[in-house]
Structures are given as structure tokens and as C-alpha cells.
Amino acid sequence: MNRFVWTFLFLSCFGALQSQQGFKLGIHGSLPVAGDANDAVSLVAGIDTGYMFALGEVVDLGPMLGYIHGFPEKFDSGGIDLPSVQFLPLAASVRIWPSNSFSFGIDGGYALGLNDGNEGGVYYKPILGFLFGPQTEISVSYTGIAVDGFEWATANIGILYTFPENRFR
Fold this sequence. Notes:
It is a single chain. By secondary structure, the protein is mostly beta strands. The protein is built from two helices and eight strands. Strand 5 (102-113) and strand 6 (121-131) form a beta hairpin. The longest helix has 13 residues, at 2-14. The radius of gyration is 18 Å and the shape is elongated.
């Protein structure tokens, strides 16, 4: 068993896989799936940006900044105008590339609340990515924000583009 673990670590760190270092820009659309977000919003859209540093050939790590906008529920508001729900996530991102075309990882940090009465909360976003071209990635993810007295949970699908670094040596 010990030999298996060392072999796995060696292959993970030194395998001939392609990490995705560079500036990233992505958009996503979401649906609320549980919690209080399901009552407050009907659709969610967002944008993410960040920079990933390749830590070897398999692991990428970097900062992430995003914007999430929840459009208010109009069908069951009882004649009350519900406000939009807006967050500004500030997080660290980690991605693991077990193959050239598939990644998994998580974004974790804090989401600042931008609308009135929204204090923000702990932010987490597990994500699966599928490379669709040299720099284009399709992602499926879940966003959770633990706000005092409010639960935010959405299922997301998005597209992400990596602007590769041009290194001259």
C-alpha cells in the first residue's frame, strides 16, 4: 500500500499533464436549488476572474474574484417587489488536473453582500471542469454561501477562458 501511495504522488506531481496557468475569465448561469435562495431568486448569473499559478504539472492555485447576481422571484412574491441578491466572492482557488481534459477543485473564501440587508458569508464552490479547447473550459459547479439566517445554494454551469502566459526565455 505504501508503494502505491508513493507511486501515485510521483505520477501526480511529475506526470506529463497540462496545467492551466494564466489569467482566467468566466461566466456562469445558475438555478437556486435549496435554502432561502430558492424563495428569493429565480435565476442567477455571475462572472469570475482570477489568476492560476501552476504548482507543477497537475495542481493550479490562485486568487479568485467574482460577482453573483440573483434576479428576484416575480411569480410568487404576493405583490411585493423583492430585491435582487448580489454577492462579491473573494476566494482562493485550487484545481487538480488528473488528465489533460478534466479538472476538479474548489473555490473557498468569503462572499461580501452588496445589496441592502445582505451581510455576506462564508463562500464555497466545488467545481468540475472539462477542457473544450486549448484554453476553453466548460464547468459544472455548486455554490454555497452561509449567511447569518440565510442559506444560499445554486447549481451552476459555465464557460471559462484562460489567457495563457507568454513566457520568453
